[in-house]
Write a structure and sequence with these properties.
Among the domains are: 12-187, no CATH class; 241-396, Alpha-Beta Complex (Sulfite Oxidase, Chain A, domain 2), CATH 3.90.420.10. Helices cover 32% and strands 23% of the residues. The chain contains eleven helices and 20 strands. The chain has helices at residues 12-37, 43-54, 57-67, 71-93, 99-118, 128-148, 159-187, 192-197, 265-270, 302-309, 332-336; strands spanning 204-206, 250-255, 261-264, 273-281, 292-301, 317-322, 327-331, 343-348, 351-352, 362-364, 378-384, 407-412, 418-419, 422-431, 437-445, 454-456, 458-459, 469-477, 480-490, 512-518. The chain is globular and about 85 Å long. Bound molecules: the ligand Nc1nc2c(c(=O)[nH]1)N[C@H]1C(S)=C(S)[C@@H](COP(=O)(O)O)O[C@H]1N2 and molybdenum atom. Ligand MTE is lined by residues 232-238, 280, 282, 322, 324, 326, 357, 370-371, 374-377. This is DMSO/TMAO reductase YedYZ, molybdopterin-dependent catalytic subunit. The chain crosses the membrane at residues 72-93, 100-118, 124-144, 165-186. Pfam families: Oxidored_molyb.
């Protein structure tokens, strides 16, 4: 390698540009190769997915509560900034010799290869994608670095050299753009969105009862009873939504069964499909948080599938695995319980499952937090014991069993507005799925936080014990600063505890309170 003299260093801007263009070439080459060996092997995706898996539970918890559904966007943006800085740094370190930059590229490439090897959803071949990145990045860096060197007069770029460098730089930029687009296009050939659109109408053999009018107080600020699909909360570890075509999908049921079953999409949709209204909740939901939603899920009773497979005595856990290698452990008895009505769902609110909610198929088990029940993009169910297998979040410190806790939330007032003193409407939701809500009580505290008496709220029409229930109350409120609290009572007679606990390891407890001002 040619070392330039001290006064023959590349201009800083040129050096930085060499680094950035090498990065672009590396990412594009990896993305293109990933189109053939698995979309998850695209280097940024693989590194991001590994970062998610290595994230400690408290940080995941923080990311979910701080950024919600945008947590992955924030991660990707953060990675983009880090990569860009690394590329500029690699360029600037290499103003004299390309060696430091090549070292940085090799280290980053090795990290990406390691990330791909640790992905549970990728084969060995997938390492070709980060390898392509490494090679393209190094070659581009070397070539552009050489072109940027002044040929004769040290310290200045001769016009011809400058032109040669600019042509090279333009070529790399254009080539990277084309390779990236080609990767996108080829990868999109296995198009899940097109497959979903082609599903058409799913025949409903047993529709859910219509939601009665007056089941929500949406005009007062509660959610609508059914959550539209695009407003349904979304939580998962998938950095890119797994794209599975219905025609490529199968579900295998194996393990402690008499007969192993493999079902495809056509076989599932041809069965008599049952529709059930179910409220789902995430264990990461803080008291008062948004990660609870309700939909009409359409599918096949999971219990029927298990009965056909023949569950052997001693089986305790259904260890389900998704397309992207996420795993989930669900109690066998909950799934076999006919009253609970667990589904292998393929439809949601009158449509095929949206891609981000698990297309082609997912599990839905009323009354259990999503991380122990609601596997999206499900490909495999192994009937096993608790001792034999630890699912994804269990090995990260969350509870083995996680029934949804009886909870309630105030949706109005929202605490930001100043309201006229006098009659104030308080409204919200309460849920105790599989049990049902029989009461909600609210309490108005003086601004001194001296607790007032609990008083009953009015409940909206009940829909099903597996769903949430809306409530409202009118309070007579003098001017000032106030705090209102709510607590649910479920059909077992249990009154929601006021003791505060954080979401980890098995769901938050405590009363939701809202502070507001009247004048
Ligand atoms: N494949 C897969 N399925 C998953 C998850 C995941 O990370 N990967 N997260 C679970 C969690 S924690 C919850 S709360 C629910 C959320 O389902 P939703 O995004 O459709 O609301 O999905 C569950 N199913
Ligand atoms: Mo969750």
């Amino acid at each position: 390698m040619t070392d330039l003299g001290d006064d023959a260093r590349l201009p800083a801007r040129t050096a930085a540009l060499v680094g950035v263009l090498a990065l672009a070439a590396a990412l594009a080459a990896g993305h293109l190769v990933a189109a053939f060996v698995g979309a998850g092997a695209s280097p940024v995706v693989a590194v991001g997915a590994t970062a998610i898996d290595l994230t400690p539970a408290w940080l995941k918890d923080f990311a979910v509560s701080a950024f919600g559904t945008y947590d992955k966007l924030v991660l990707l943006l953060g990675m983009a900034v880090v990569l860009l800085l690394a590329a500029i740094g690699a360029g600037l370190l290499s103003r004299r010799s390309p060696t430091p930059g090549l070292v940085v590229i090799t280290v980053l490439g090795a990290l990406a290869v390691a990330a791909v090897f640790t992905r549970p959803d990728l084969g060995q071949l997938a390492a070709l994608a980060p390898l392509a990145s490494l090679v393209a990045g190094a070659l581009t860096f070397r070539a552009l670095h050489r072109r940027a060197q002044p040929a004769t007069d040290p310290g200045t770029l001769e016009p011809t050299d400058r032109r040669g460098f600019l042509i090279g730089a333009g070529g790399v930029a254009a080539g990277a753009g084309l390779a990236g687009l080609a990767g996108q296009w080829i990868g999109g050939g296995r198009d899940a969105a097109g497959s979903r659109a082609a599903v058409g109408d799913l025949a409903v053999a047993d529709p859910a009862p219509a939601i009665p009018p007056g089941a929500d107080f949406a005009d007062l600020g509660t959610p609508t009873f059914l959550t539209p699909n695009d407003r349904f909360y979304r939580i998962d570890t998938a950095l890119v939504v797994p794209r599975v075509r219905a025609e490529d999908w199968t579900l295998r049921i194996s393990g402690m069964v008499d007969r192993e079953l493999t079902l495809d999409y056509a076989a599932i949709r041809a069965r008599p499909l049952v529709e059930r209204t179910i409220t789902m909740a995430c264990v990461s939901n803080d008291v008062g948080g948004p990660y609870v939603s309700t939909a009409n899920f359409l599918g096949v009773p999971l219990a029927d599938l298990l009965r056909e497979a023949g569950v052997r005595p001693g089986a305790e856990q259904l260890l389900s695995t998704s397309e992207d290698g996420w795993t989930c452990g669900t109690p066998v008895d909950a799934v076999l319980d006919p009253a609970r009505g667990a589904l292998l769902a393929i439809g949601m609110n009158g449509e095929p499952l949206p891609l981000e909610h698990g297309f082609p198929a997912r599990m839905v088990v009323p009354g259990l937090y999503g991380y122990v029940s609601a596997t999206k993009w499900v490909r495999d169910i192994e009937v096993t014991t608790w001792a034999a297998r630890d699912a994804y979040w269990l090995s990260r410190g969350w509870a083995e069993r996680a029934p949804v806790k009886t909870q309630s939330r105030i949706d109005t007032p929202d605490g930001s507005a100043t309201l006229p003193a006098g009659r104030v409407t308080v409204a919200g939701v309460a849920w105790a799925p599989t049990i049902g809500i029989t009461g909600v009580e609210i309490r108005l505290d003086r601004h001194s936080h001296e607790p007032g008496p609990w008083q009953p709220a009015e409940l909206a029409a009940a829909v099903h014990e597996n769903t949430w229930r809306m409530w409202r109350a009118e309070l007579d409120v003098p001017p000032g600063r106030h705090r209102v609290a709510c607590r649910a009572v479920d059909a077992t007679g249990y009154t929601q505890t006021g003791e505060r606990s954080s979401p980890a390891p098995d769901g938050a407890t405590g009363w939701h309170t809202v502070t507001f001002t009247t004048e």
